[in-house]
Design brief:
The complex is a heterodimer of chains A (about 100) and B (about 180). Chain A is mainly alpha-helical and about 100 residues long. Chain A has one domain (about 1-90): Helix Hairpins (Orthogonal Bundle). Chain A is about 75% helix and about 0% strand. The N and C termini of chain A lie far apart (about 60 Å). With about 180 residues, chain B is mainly alpha-helical. Chain B has two domains: about 1-80, NADH-ubiquinone/plastoquinone oxidoreductase chain 6, subunit NuoJ (Four Helix Bundle (Hemerythrin (Met), subunit A)), CATH 1.20.120; about 130-175. Chain B has six helices and no strands. Chain B is extended and about 65 Å long. Mean pLDDT of chain B is about 85; it is low at about 125-130. The chains are: A mainly alpha (about 100), B mainly alpha (about 180). The interface between A and B is large, with 76 and 86 residues.
């Protein structure tokens, strides 16, 4: 009986919403720049999940193509972001995001 | 059966995600992130996106998390962060309210629109194209056809983006030699 229930698109969207919410909570609360980046990855993955759910629902492969591009952009973003973090932390070891207000106007 | 897979994968995803934001040690955060990414790969397979599942494991769980771990080890920032420190008194309640509001809004939208797009599951010609609908590699064929027919220019731009990212990172993280 239970095994006959199939997860619908709405289930995937709710799961993606929860994942996005957890990621955004992490971005707003955590202060380690590396963990901050991981939370951004969580949010990107939530969006990917809903893209694929919609691709299945609509029968349109374009959703999966978009996820492919999101993956590439996420990889580039992580590389550049970690480069910036490395160069900042090399100058100021143990810096948290509270310390990184040097560009403040 | 699909329900069981979904529930297990959802549990993996949520436990990993909560782990990322509550663990104090950055290495533990990265390992929790791997758990989440694997759960998402499982859901991709369940949704018949086999190629994306493979790419998810290789690129995310492989390359990106390893990059994170490398940076953690390289910089020696694997000290434990004290989560009880709260620089701005009202920050955490506000953050909790904002993210609960985001989740609530999205869930409300998804639930209220659950019957909105039932009517027309449009099977466009690219989707698992008529010729290879039942083939074992239908997904990757359909994806490749869409990618290289409708998105060729974007695909080429992606290569430019990757080159720019690599050059920029090398430039950023290069040690500047002191002038003689």
């Amino acid at each position: 009986m239970i095994a006959s229930i199939e997860p619908t698109t709405t289930w995937y969207l709710i799961l993606a919403a929860l994942l996005f919410g957890i990621g955004s909570l992490g971005v707003m609360v955590r202060r380690n720049p590396l963990v901050l980046f991981m939370c951004v990855e969580l949010m990107l993955n939530a969006v990917n999940l809903s893209f694929v759910a919609f691709a299945v629902k609509m029968g349109d492969i374009g959703g999966q193509t978009t996820v492919f591009f999101v993956l590439v952009v996420a990889a580039a973003e992580v590389v550049v972001g970690l480069g910036i973090i490395v160069s900042i932390l090399r100058r100021r070891p143990g810096a948290t995001t509270d310390d990184l207000d040097e560009l403040r106007g | 059966m699909e329900l069981v897979v979904f529930v297990i994968a959802a549990a993996m995803i949520l436990v990993g995600a909560v782990g990322v934001i509550v663990r104090t040690h950055p290495v533990h955060c990265a390992l929790s992130l791997i758990l989440t990414l694997f759960g998402i790969a499982v859901l991709f397979i369940e949704e018949n996106a086999q190629f994306l599942a493979a790419v998810q494991v290789i690129v995310y769980a492989g390359a990106i998390v390893v990059l994170f771990l490398f940076v953690i080890m390289l910089l020696g920032v694997d000290g434990v962060e004290d989560l009880r420190v709260e620089p701005f008194k009202i920050q955490r309640p506000l953050a909790a309210i904002v993210s609960v509001a985001i989740v609530g809004l999205v869930i409300a939208a998804a639930v209220s629109a659950r019957n909105a797009f039932v009517a027309a599951p449009v099977i466009s010609p690219q989707v698992a194209g008529a010729a290879d609908a039942g083939a074992h590699d239908a997904n990757i064929r359909a994806l490749a056809r869409d990618l290289f027919s409708n998105h060729v220019f974007t695909f080429e731009l992606t290569s430019a983006l990757l080159v720019i990212a690599v050059v920029g990172t090398v430039l950023l993280s290069r040690k500047i030699k002191a002038a003689p």
